[in-house]
Amino acid sequence: MAITFLMDGKEVTAEENKTLLDIARENGVDIPTICFHEATTANALCRICVVEVEGQRVLQPACIVKAGAGMKVQTRSEKVIRARRTILEMLDSTMDLSETPEIQNMMKDYNADPNRFPDAERRESDVKDDNPMYVRDYSKCLLCWRCVQVCAEDAQYTFAINFDGRGFETQIGTFFGKSIPETSCVLCGQCVAVCPTGALKPKREFLLEQGMSPQEISVLNTGRKQKSKVKGRDDFRPLTGLEER
Amino acid sequence: MSEIDLTPLKLAIESYIPLGRSGLLPALHAAQKIYGWLPQEVASEVAKSLRVPLADVHGVIEFYSLYYNEQVGEKIIRVCTDQACTLKGGDRLLDHLCKYYDVEPGQTTEDLSLTIERSPCLGLCELAPAALVDDDAETSISPDFHSYDLGIPQSLVYGSIRELTSNCGESTTTLAKYGEYSAYQKALKVKPEDVIAEIKASGLVGRGGAAFPTGIKWEGAAKAQADQKYVVCNADESEPGTFKDRILLLDDPHRTIEGMCIAAYAIGASKGYIYIRGEYPYIVPVLENALIEAREAGYLGEKFDIEIRVGAGAYICGEETALFESIEGKRGFPRVKPPFPTTNGLFDKPTVINNVETLCNVPLIISKGSAEYRKIGTEKSPGSKLFCVSGDVVKPGLYEIPFGVTLRALLKMAGGPSTSLRTDKKSLKAVLFGGAAGAFATSAHLDVKLTFEDLRAAGLPLGSGVVMVFDETRNILDVLKRLGKFFAHESCGKCYPCQMGTQRQMEILDRVAAGNVVEGDFVCLQDVGWTMTDASLCGLGQTAASAVLSAMKLWPELFKDEGWGMKDEEKSEKVSKVSMVSKVKPKTVKKVVKATTKKSKKTTTKKK
Q1: Nearest CB to B55 within list A61, A120, A175
Q2: Which fold has domain B477-571?
Q3: Chain B residues with CB inside 8 Å of A164's CB?
Q4: How far is CA B507 from the centre of its chain?
Q5: pLDDT given at position A218
Q6: CA–CA separation, B29 vs B162, rounded Å?
Q7: What is this structure's pTM?
């Protein structure tokens, strides 16, 4: 059944049971998202997608709130803009956003001031390079939870990672801080795939960025130089992890 | 490390194995009782036995303040340095203890005999300053620290009426003294829907802070179809300044249990939980004993029984859905609502969750009927209300008064500033209303009637009934600084506005309290505050700035330095459109804190 409601003053018709975010996207209305990912359970935790719904005391997350007939939704009211801008400013004062062009664009969109909180405590962490598949740089982690979710019931049922601490001091962590090879991690790579910020990065990508040549990486990985049958493609032989030593 | 003997652990957690993941918090409590802390081997054994992933067990240990993954002292002293205790010297007490034992707060003595910690509100505000020494409350500590009470805290009960507190003030009321569960028996003679109708007619609303109509909540759960329903008593009383549920449960546990029995009958629940905060360990045996009495008398048993669950140091677990998560053995993250607990509550089943004081009203309503019940209080706020009065008053304690009494009258009873009970001439500066998540009142509010409707009109939340009194000598900025610390410590970290907002709010308040106000602080605090209020996921975040925002309205001068034009900003109740910040701000050195786990920060063992 189709329902009709108002989004930013315009009448919108949509199928029942759809979220405000889906409907906004169908209608070309831009609602920013950070933690939302089509493949993971929506937790509505980044709150960047909040919108103002008439009659509701607080702003509503568009990623999970379903549209209802007669609803009056404002996607860019003053309250919404203040919330989004402040969230972005707080993010920028907390973590390294250098590998999140989308968020940087949002900052421009919302006139977010990167120096709003100049003496703020930041969440910093050393790069954790403890397994052959990926590196973890939690200075870049914005706690979207996607990696924990895909490691658990959203995909892999591996349960290798969870949280350290709570509140501002939360960080993704393993059992008593053990290295990845000591955990139940199966190196499936799903966490890396859903990471929005480069906090989780394929090892090879990381090494290339560090200035290592593909040749050097091959040597590092296998102990010997790789030869490909395709001429000139030596460097791109995929690493299966099963190469002879 | 490898010499840890796991035999006693296996024995102690055996009974939790059938509970699976839901047995995690009880099992970790049991483990910590044996080993004093939770070493890796112990945590893995618990994980294996309950079939919970290791990482998840770690996540749970990390979430709750009362679990330790590093060795702590044999004895742990938790000194309350929250508002009410600070007014009575809580900070001095902590300093004194730390100097005496030569440790810093959060550290353990070299011989591992003692850990001293700073604690958020322990719910002993009327007996301040107070501490928790292992499982005992240490209260009414004298200014020279030489005398104190140790064990089960005293109950100071006053007021103008004794309805809910008729059995409070002495010691625990046994079943023999409480008498039959006559209200429950009366309820059983009518249909469940009639019980709900009676509760609805009484006008009872929740006393935990949200003031939701109890009858409507029950009706929702009663109508929901499910093979299993639950009644949960929220006794995770952690709102700073609140101690009413502590007294109700200690002195009159059967009233709460009877209330739960009636609720269970009304909605068709066969299982109940009492979730009590971890900082009230001395109540647990009292409750256990009361449950045994109720079982022996046949009130609890096959049809409906109650299990006690003990929290582990997390204010957020007072939020109903976070409390469910905690019972389910998880980190106390609030869930998104809807769906609401009445349809998808504990274990995703229809659940009624009520605060202790709310449940205590239930037997009263059923016994005398809603019409009689409504004779007390006002039309829109029927019944009586418990107020937790602490701070600068002569007689701090629990006050039961009918709804409709003025704040002035309540302060007069308690001997607040400028009242006849006071011998000094100090006047009233402020009253923190409703707790940390509340708002400030001043002498301008003295004639406000204490009812839901009058307080709402005055912009004051009734909250959990906190009335914390500050006289003119008190520094509001210090109060705000502590509020900021409290929320930063207690934010669960799930949603961004609260996770980062409580931290930023604390930083700004710290700086302002230190006299280091910079231009833009006012607007920054407002933006952070309103963003938390408008956009946070749960009630904690939505109220984490409420007291601060109310203080900014009352005392804007505290947040400015001479020479700034504040006019526009003072008015900007609404949205501050432009960030008029930071351009002139002095660059302070960026504080970089390595994200260590909270445990290693908190309980660093003193180096030899």
Answers
A1: A175
A2: de novo design (two linked rop proteins) (1.20.1440)
A3: 58-59, 62, 595, 597-598
A4: 23
A5: 84
A6: 37
A7: 0.92
